[in-house]
Write a structure and sequence with these properties.
The protein is α/β, with parallel strands linked by helices. It has one domain (about 10-25, about 35-305): Ribokinase (UDP-N-acetylmuramoyl-L-alanine:D-glutamate ligase). Helix content is about 30%, strand content about 25%. A 9-stranded mixed β-sheet has the order 5-4-1-8-9-10-11-12-13, with helices on both faces. A 4-stranded mixed β-sheet has the order 3-2-6-7. Helix 1 packs across helix 7 and helix 3 (about 125-135) runs parallel beside helix 4 (about 150-155). This is Adenosine kinase. Keywords: Kinase, Transferase. It holds the Pfam family PfkB.
């Protein structure tokens, strides 16, 4: 049976309020003048992964809880205006919100509103199963209501990926996702020993690949072949915002995986997509397209700058945060 969708994205729909601040950390003061304005726009982790996958030509459907409120309208418009199929399940606590403080160098500090998750809100198992059965792969956000969907996805027979974001390696909320996915993304930001955490994910779970992103230092890829370093890709333009870079990396990696590429090539695609995202202001939503991704990956490979490990490459230890 031919799948209707390449990827089903679960969770991670919401609205961010973007505030460009003069520096991070922001010094204490009674007030600050914000020269570049304050703007609320749809686009959280699931929204950006869905956007990135679609821009790369993958048929994508996004499913999440969303409120019957003005912020939910922004989320629905985000998908409608970009031709992204979206199913919104009513959320009694309202649409997920966050405030992102963005410094002049593109660094970001996110403040997430934890009150927008009602215990009774769930993604209906029947709906999840129906969409999963029509998909090749599912990417699951760690947002409210998604952990309960993992057994349904496994029963549907799809492969699963997840992004643990700034997991510290200890918070139990992340464990069902970490140990229940075939591909696991995580940031090095809060990991005291990234390699130990990556290996524990593989040992305790079902992951075939674990990727730890380290910003300008690149990323680290762990597979059955061992741990290798993925060099950062120099952005083609000025770095204006790191918001969405991890989501873009995940989209690029998954594009490679679903295209039949080996893990190092997938990681190169992720690095290229993540670098592109850093050139896009947080108040916009744009992702690299397939032609741009393949062109840049080919250029890096031809120049020998793709960081592909040599056969038999030795052990690589990722840095601390």
């Amino acid at each position: 049976m031919n799948a209707t969708y390449d990827v089903l994205v679960l969770g991670g729909a919401g609205v961010d309020t973007i505030v460009y601040v003069p520096e991070l950390p922001l010094p204490w003061a009674d007030s600050h003048l914000v020269e570049r304005g304050i703007e609320a726009r749809a686009g959280q982790t699931g929204d950006f992964v869905a956007l990135g996958l679609s821009a790369l030509g993958l048929r994508t459907h996004h499913l999440d809880l969303v409120g019957d409120d003005p912020f939910g309208d922004l989320v629905r418009a985000f998908h409608r205006d970009r031709g992204l199929p979206f199913t919104g399940v009513p959320a009694t606590a309202g649409t997920k919100r966050a405030v992102n403080l963005v410094g002049p160098d593109g660094r970001r500090l996110s403040l997430y509103d934890g009150s927008r998750a009602a215990a009774e809100d769930r993604l209906p198992a029947g709906l999840v199963g129906s969409l999963a059965s029509a998909s090749r792969h599912a990417h699951v956000s760690i947002t409210h209501g998604c952990a309960e969907a993992l057994p349904v996805l496994r029963a549907a027979g799809v492969t699963i990926s997840t992004d643990l974001h700034d997991w510290d390696g200890e918070n139990p909320h992340h464990e069902p996702f970490a140990y229940g996915a075939d591909v696991v993304f995580v940031s090095c930001a809060a990991l005291g020993d990234p390699e130990r955490t990556m290996r524990r994910v593989m040992e305790r779970g079902r992951a075939e690949a674990v990727v730890a992103t380290a910003g300008a230092e690149g990323a680290y890829l762990l597979t059955a072949e061992g741990l290798t370093r993925v060099p950062a890709v120099a952005p083609a333009g000025p770095v204006v915002d790191s918001n969405g870079a991890g989501d873009a990396f995940a989209a690029g990696f998954l594009f490679g995986r679903l295209s039949g590429e080996d893990p190092p090539r997938c990681a190169l695609y992720g690095a290229v997509a993540g670098a592109y995202a850093c050139t896009v202001p947080a108040t916009r939503a744009a992702a690299i397209d397939r032609a741009g991704l393949l062109r840049e990956a080919a250029r890096l490979t031809a120049s020998g700058a793709d960081g592909a490990p040599a056969p038999g490459a030795g052990r690589v230890s990722p840095p601390g945060p």
